Amino acid sequence: MKRKVIFDCDPGVDDGVALLLALSAKHEIDLLGVTTVAGNVSAELTARNACVIREIVGRLDVPIFSGCTKPLVRDPIEAGHFHGESGLGDLPIRALTHHVSSEHAVDFLVRTLIDAAPESMSLVITGPMTNVATALQREPRCVKGIKEFVIMGGARSEGGNITASAEYNIYADPHAAQKIFNAGPRVWAFGLDATHQVRATPARTATLSAIGTPIARAAAQLIEFSNALPANGPREYGSPLHDPCPIVWLIQTELFEFIPCHVDVETESPLTLGHTAVEFRPRADREQNVRWAVRANADGVFSLINRVFQI
Ligand code: RIB
Ligand code: CA
Predict the structure, then answer these.
(1) Which residues does residue 150 pair with via DSSP β-bridges, in sequence order?
(2) What are the b/e assignments for 100-116, b being 16+ CB within 10 Å?
């Protein structure tokens, strides 16, 4: 049974690969819409970039909605140094034939979730969680339509990638993340503990590129941009493929292993802002509503990506 999905993202190089995959996997994912948010780059650029990716795949049937321009509380912090000036690395940015919807992402989220059948929607979030948190804040009844959140964010054993103790998506809007982790629905959380196991080595990137389709070549070009960044470590290790992990899981869940837990987010301390306190020990007063990804089958992830892009 295809999951009904809304994909909220901040493209972003790895979001771009995830979106190429989600838009290509039309037999596995019922993608109702894409919502974009300020994060890696501005809200204007993340929206434009989602439209660029959509035209590469040709899925003009999937609407794109531009969303929040800044986090709930903290000052905005971008990650342009990892994604290039355009936000899509060195991918050519061609003139668009189709643009974002005129409807705000939060309005789309609210009306879609309010009308959804109970627990029917999978919300994938691979950027700061501002849009979804704002929708839940504006209209708490939205939660009834949500089956699960499937998020890229957080870190436990791996430590942080934007500060010593915080991963970027959580750090960029910690108040939004705290709302999502504690909204009630199941959260499938792909933190750095799992995504750091999924490395786009030169061999894997070359195999992807050799598929030769425009979509596969675009994905390889986005990945190669990350691999060339010194901040992502030695090229031979390959950069971590963060945001495609939730999308891959939607298609082949057995590629990842999880531990039940609950998660709270530091929203006050200047030193540890955005830290995810991942508690595996059961407590009588807290439901373990989160499944924390601890193992990834990296070869299986790349085999699936190659299979989807072959078509
Ligand atoms: O920490 C990795 C996350 O931060 C990814 O979603 C990447 O796109 C950046 O937003
Ligand atoms: Ca992202």
Answers:
(1) 124, 188
(2) bbeebbbebbbebbeeb
**pLDDT digits 0-9 by tens, 70-127:** 999 999 999 988 999 999 999 999 999 999 999 999 999 999 999 999 999 999 999 9
Identify the residues whose C-beta falls under 6 Å from ligand 1.
Answer: 10, 12, 14-15, 39-40, 79, 126-127, 152, 161, 167-169, 242-243
Q: What is the pTM (predicted TM-score) of this model?
A: 0.98
Domain with 34 in it: 3-308
Counting from 1 in the atom list of ligand 1, the atom nearest the Cα of 40 is 10
DSSP 3-state of 64: strand
* End-to-end C-alpha distance for the chain, whole angstroms: 20
242 is a catalytic site residue: yes
Q: How far is the CA of 14 from the centre of ligand 2 (A)?
A: 6
- CATH of residue 174: 3.90.245.10
Domain count, the chain: 1
CA distances from 176 to 8, 36, 159, 255 (A): 13, 15, 20, 28
- Report helix, strand and coil shares of the chain as percent, to nearest 5: 40, 20, 40
Between CA 96 and CA 17 the distance in angstroms is 19
What is the CA(225)–ligand 1 centre distance, in A? Answer: 15
